[in-house]
Amino acid sequence: ASFTVVDDPRGNTLGRGSRVTLHLKEDAHDYLSEDKLKESAKKYSQFIQFPIYVKVKKEVDVEAEEDDDDDDKEDEEQKKDDVETKDEEEKEEAEEKKPKKKTVFEWEQVNTQKAIWLRAKEDVTEEEYNEFYKSISKDYLDPLAYTHFNAEGE
């Protein structure tokens, strides 16, 4: 595995921050799934205070737009019809007016949890201390002991 750092040929498109582009091998396409990407980002950025975003695909309900001019003419003709026909046509129109799904892409922050050392001692569970130790030390065992303290200074 290797990496290179290059200037963006398009200029300063981000304004601030970094963009990471991954080029995957043929057998690593399972890492392209949104869930796997989020899981990996959470796992490795759990105790980082800088926000990490993943672009996600969401479906949003959008109401269909209709032409009002055509509806006015149809309404006048419907007034002449009997009541039963009106009810059937109104049901058909209600079915047609159901909201349609539209696909949108949004940036979602993956590491929303505050860093463990920035939180109050009472807010951190023993399990979180253990996970933090394992992530820092690369050890698979729980720590023998831990302490939590706040330090301020310049």
Tell me the layout of helices and strands.
Layout: H1 34-45, E1 53-62, H2 68-80, H3 83-96, E2 100-109, H4 126-137
Antiparallel strand pairs: 1-2
Outline of the structure:
The chain has 154 residues and is of the alpha+beta class. The chain contains four helices and two strands.
Overview of this structure, please?
- With 154 residues, the protein is an alpha+beta fold.
- The protein is 33% helix and 13% strand.
- The protein contains 4 helices and 2 strands, in the order αβααβα.
- A two-stranded antiparallel ribbon has the order 1-2.
- It is extended and about 75 Å long.
Largest sheet: 2 strands, antiparallel
The number of E-state strands comes to 2
Q: Total number of helical segments?
A: 4
The helical percent reads 25-40%
Q: What is the distance, rounded to the nearest whole angstrom, between the alpha carbons of the first and last residues?
A: 39 Å
Main attributes of the structure:
single chain, 154 residues, two-stranded antiparallel ribbon
